[in-house]
Amino acid sequence: MKKLLSTVLLALCVLTVSAQAGDETQKPNFPTNAPQLEFALQLKVTLGEAFGIDNTQHGRRTVIPITGGTFEGPNIKGTIINGGADYQLNGANGRSELEAIYCIKTDDGIYIHVRNRGIIASGKDANDNPSFYFKAAPQFEAPADSKYGWLNNSLFICEPEWSQGFKGIVLNVWRVK
Known about the structure:
Elements: H1 2-22, E1 37-47, E2 51-56, E3 59-73, E4 76-80, E5 84-90, E6 95-106, E7 111-124, E8 130-141, E9 155-161, E10 168-176
Antiparallel strand pairs: 1-3, 1-10, 2-3, 3-4, 3-5, 4-6, 5-6, 6-7, 7-8, 9-10
């Protein structure tokens, strides 16, 4: 009798769990409050002649020298220092990983190190239409005791803006709030 009762209870539990798992009215409770973005600055980066290193153990490496430029935002303004570079690793599938390393100097003489990592991908979307994706996440290293210390304590994202009259790349940068 005890065995029969245990079997019946087990069967009821399995049926209850199965019914709940199959209930399509229960939907996951995903968060609805997305992080906000705040415009931080625009970089107008001048570039030198790119060169490539073929057939490395990681793929084709493209190096694009950073020769200067300017930047400006609501709380920051200055110049981009000559001497950095954008190091891109190009895959055969239309995807490139980029890592740009350079320094900027504010109008009031403060140097800030920038390391910008991102992805460039081209291909086809689900409907076989051409697609293009270019986003990056710059990280800033500013003197902590300067008025630019806020750059050290935030995450940033950027994307290019294509400008006909500018020989280089324009990057718009947002701070994730």
